[in-house]
UniProtKB/TrEMBL annotation:
GO biological process, one term: photosynthesis, light reaction
SUPFAM superfamilies membership: PRC-barrel domain
Domain of life: Bacteria
GO cellular component term of the entry, any: plasma membrane light-harvesting complex
InterPro entries for this protein: Bac_photo_RC_H_C, PRC-brl_dom, PRC_barrel-like_sf
Segments passing through the bilayer: none
Species this protein is from: Paractinoplanes atraurantiacus
Annotated PRC-barrel domain residues: 22-81
Annotated region (Disordered), positions in chain: 1-24
Annotated protein name in UniProt: Sporulation protein YlmC, PRC-barrel domain family
Length: 138
């Protein structure tokens, strides 16, 4: 049983490209289930072993990116993608209250386990995980 996230890394740092360039949502606005803007997709986190996008890093706040706060949202929460935006299946309040990421964390596995649990999704590394039926990030 694999109970570890393995190596999660930024797509930018991986040297890889998405098979379908339309799946590269970096720079697109992120909106909640009510259409309120949350921020912009800053980066895509992939699991290096399976080379699949697993988490969106969304930045919000700050001025011209300075002081912006990152939010991490599992791709399972994506309900739609257009040319301009990514729609998330949760309210902005729910997203804002998600576990905060600390880059100094010693146990990133625990953080991502908590993050998936907070949103109500089984983590992709756990037995019984079923990938999203939508075509996004498959």
């Amino acid at each position: 049983m694999n109970t570890s996230t393995g190596t999660m890394m930024r797509l930018t740092d991986s040297g890889q490209k998405l098979a379908d360039p339309a799946d590269d949502v970096r720079g697109r606005r992120v909106v909640d289930s009510d259409g309120h803007e949350i921020g912009r997709v800053d980066e895509l986190l992939i699991d290096a072993g399976q080379r699949k996008v697993r988490v969106l890093r969304v930045v919000h706040g700050g001025l011209f990116g300075v002081g912006a706060t990152p939010l991490f949202i599992p791709v399972e929460a994506v309900e739609r993608v257009t040319d301009d935006e990514v729609g998330i299946a949760h309210s902005r309040v729910r997203i804002a209250e998600a576990p905060a990421y600390d880059p100094e964390l010693a146990d990133r596995d625990e953080y991502f386990t908590d993050l998936y649990g907070y949103y109500g999704y089984l983590p992709y590394w756990m037995p019984g995980y079923v990938p999203p039926a939508r075509r996004f990030f498959r």
